Amino acid sequence: MNTIKLSEFENTSVAKIDINGTTVAVFKVDEDYYAIQNMCSHSEADLADGEVYDCKVECPLHGAEFDLKTGEALTLPATKPVTVFTTEVDGDSLVIKENLDA
Ligand code: FES
After folding, report:
1. What's the pLDDT tens digit per position in 34-93?
2. Is 70 helix (H, G, I), strand (E, B) or coil?
3. Is any atom of ligand 1 closer than 6 Å to the C-beta of 79?
4. Is the Cβ–Cβ distance between 52 and 9 less than 8 Å?
5. In testing the pocket of ligand 1, which one of 59, 75, 76 has its CB within 8 Å of the most ligand atoms?
6. Coiled coil where (predicted)?
């Protein structure tokens, strides 16, 4: 199962996990968790290194913003969305799943 211990978020608000060969960036925003594909849809940049505000992450390379809930590319230069994963707290762990409805 793809899980991250909630304790990993004690001193940071972002973690990474590999799910079926895709690196997923998991962000803690207030008490909620959002998981998106780590690789920016514009070029090769780690969204986990981006700045997070208003439930959006800003790509550290060219500054495109992505909605953490939907994966939608909100600003240029990115035009394609990033894949969103489902998160679910289970005891002291966070379970991250591929969103099969997408
Ligand atoms: S690599 Fe993310 S906006 Fe260009």
Report:
1. 999 999 999 999 999 999 999 999 999 999 999 999 999 999 999 999 999 999 999 999
2. coil
3. no
4. no
5. 59
6. none
- The conformation of residue 36, written as its DSSP 8-state character, comes to E
3-98 fold: Rieske Iron-sulfur Protein (2.102.10)
What is the distance in A from the centroid of ligand 1 to the CA of 79?
10
According to the model, what pLDDT value does residue 42 have? Answer: 98
Q: Quote the radius of gyration of the chain (alpha carbons, Å).
A: 13
**Per-residue confidence (pLDDT) for residue 57, from 0 to 100:** 98
Q: Which atom of ligand 1 is found nearest the CA of 44?
A: 1
Amino acid identity, position 75: T
Q: Which pLDDT score is estimated for 102? A: 54
- For residue 43, the ligand 1 atom closest to its alpha carbon is 1
